[in-house]
Structures are given as structure tokens and as C-alpha cells.
Amino acid sequence: MKNLRLMIAAVCLCALGLLSTPASAQTKELVLWHAYRADEKDALEKVVAQFNAANAAKGIKVTTLAVPYDAYADKISATVPRGKGPDLFIFAQDRLGGWTEAGNMEPFDFFMDDATRKRFIPTTMEAMTYRGTVYGLPLNYKVITLIYNKKLVPVPPKTSGELVAMAKKLTDKKAGRFGLAYSYGDFYYHAALMNGFGGGVFGPNATPTLNSAQNLKSVEQMMKWAEKDGIMPSEPSTALITSLFNEGKAAMVFSGPWFLGEIAKGVDYGLAPLPTLDEAGGKPMRPWMTVEGVYISAQSKNKEAAYEVANFLTSTEAAKVLALQGRQSPANQAVYADPKIAGDAQLKAFRDQVEVAVPMPNVPEMSMVWSPATSAMNAILKKASTPKAALDGAQKAVAKDVAGLRKK
């Protein structure tokens, strides 16, 4: 009877929540998706392991899953609405608006305070904001800058005039040598000139502006470098640019951190800010900045715990690991005061460049831009169209697609 009474009492206590349940039953298991590989993946997993160790007593455990990049966005779009996706995921801001409109994203404003907002480089927070609401915490950013061969360019140019003068001396087309090489036919890379001239793809209310006067000037400047000045290869594929730089046949390149891993070990290179534009009154070239944020699925059943994870991943402690081991550029501002990071030439160069970078638009309408813009750039380079006619065509196509999107 005594044992029976004890069993009954235990059941009652459990029902009232007064008796502890096994730790395994209390554990909140969260899944984090990302697309990192190599050093970036190792650094992220190290930070997640630190979080798990620090939060074991709370019963919060994070498991990471590396998703192939090519399939990543489609997997988010397909799984999150059905509650089959991750609790958290890391991705660039270009899909933020579309995913928000689809109801996939959990707003962050409820969780955040002023101190958290001020933790980050302001433009990276801008990238995480859609229609006035924050939907993620910025983890790191990527931006293009000037990468140069120190043997050929002892002191990098600070202005477009210096760039052209220096590049002309280093160009010998017959020998296959060029002063400057970058993917100028790629609209993403061209954005540095476009934004530098004060152009852009949208005006107020995401109204397309591809054929603006400023955008036309930027294309004309690009063609001047390619044709009149003759300082760039005519068909700059990614493979060609890498090959030229590694062979000492391209003195300067406009590219981002992804290019650094392709540089041959024997090449002594440096990084510097993109030059200012004499043709635009001395304004800086302003490349697009892509910001990878940590987002919470609207379907997650453990949103408060998920925010704790996002908060930790973007902390100064985590940022140091991601920077030094993962070779990423954290959005966290305070980490750049660390002596090891402040003394890292690569990290400093990208941090300097981001001061004038422009967050890539995160509105759903941005997905309508790429195809028409790419077609326009190809037509211009192949002389199939004048710059003005090509941009007018792109403007018409984007405006039509945007109008169709808004009717849905």
C-alpha cells in the first residue's frame, strides 16, 4: 500500500509540474541550415559547439546541416511553409523580401533591444530590415574590392584617373597582359560603377529605374575602360580573370573574398578600396554588399531558444572565431577592435570597403531584375545594342514583370 501511495503521489506531482522530468524530455533540439564548406563550415560548427556547451543546462541543443548552395533557396521555399524545414537558417538578404511575403520569416523586433541593434555595422542591419521590420541578425557580409599584384602595382590607385593611367602602362594586348580585369559584363560587378554614379535599380516604392541617366553614364564609363582606354580583356570570364592574375598578366582585379582562394601561392597580392570616380565628381565606387543573416523559421516551435542561438552566433565572441578561422567578415562592429583582427590586412580591407558599399535590395522585385539586366549587359558588350537602347529594353521588361507581381 505504501508503494502504491508513493506512485500515486508521484503521478499527481508530475501532473502539477512539480516533479522534474528527465533531462532528455526537456531538451529543445534546434536545427540550423547553412551552405558553408571548408574553413567557414568548421568555424561555424566550432561556434555552435560553444553554444551547446554553454547552454546544456538550459536543455538547448543545436544541430547543423550543410545544404548544397544550388539547392538551398528552393529547399527553404519548399520545406519551411510545411513545417519541415530548419528552426534557423543562414542566407543572404536578397531573398528576404520574397520569403517574408510568403510568410516564412519570423520577425525579430520583439526580441531585440537598442544594444543589440547597435552591435552591428548599420548597413548590415539595413539589409536585415524589410518594410521597417527586422527579420534576422546580420552574421557577415561580402563585398568586392581592389585586389592587386604587388610586383606590378607597388601602390594601388586611389582614383579612376590613376587607375587608367597605371593600367595603360601595364597593358599589352598582343602579349595578353592587362592592367585591369574583372567581370564587367556581370551586373553584380557593374553595380559598383552604377552606384558610384548615383544610379540604382529602384526608386521609391521599388519602382524600376534601370534606364536612368546615372545608370547610362555608368555603362558608358565601363565601355570607355574596355574600348577607348583598352585596359581590360574583351571577354572576361571568371576562369580567364583567375588565370591572368595568377600568371602575372592582370595587374588589378575587382573581386571579393571568394577570389582570394583562387590566387596561386606564389602571387604576392594586396587589397585596397575601389578607386573614387573622377568622372562622378570624386565619388567612391560603391559595390553591392551581400549580408548573410541568421533567420528564424516562422514555423519553428522553439522561437525563443532559436533567438538565443542567433544572438550567440552574432556575438563578438563568435565573430572572432568566424573571422580568424572562417576568414569571414563579421557584421559585428566590436570585433574589429580585437588586435588580431585589426592587424589582419584582408579583414581590414573589406571592413574599409563596406563603409561605402550599398546593401543589395532585399525586395521581392529584385528577382525580376537579373535576367533583363544580364541580357542588356550582354547586348551592350556584343554591340548588338547601344547602351541606351539596351537599358530601355531592360527597364521595360522589369517594369512589366513588377506590375505582374503586384497583381498577384
From TrEMBL:
Query: SUPFAM superfamilies recorded for this chain?
Result: Periplasmic binding protein-like II (SSF53850)
InterPro entries, per database record: Maltose/Cyclodextrin-bd (IPR006060), SBP (IPR006059)
Q: What is the lineage of its organism?
A: Bacteria, Pseudomonadati, Myxococcota, Myxococcia, Myxococcales
Q: Which residues cross the membrane?
A: none
- Highest taxon above the source species: Bacteria
Q: Which UniProt keywords apply?
A: Signal, Sugar transport, Transport
Question: Protein name, please?
Answer: Extracellular solute-binding protein
- Family membership noted in the UniProt record: Belongs to the bacterial solute-binding protein 1 family.
Write the signal peptide boundaries: 1-25
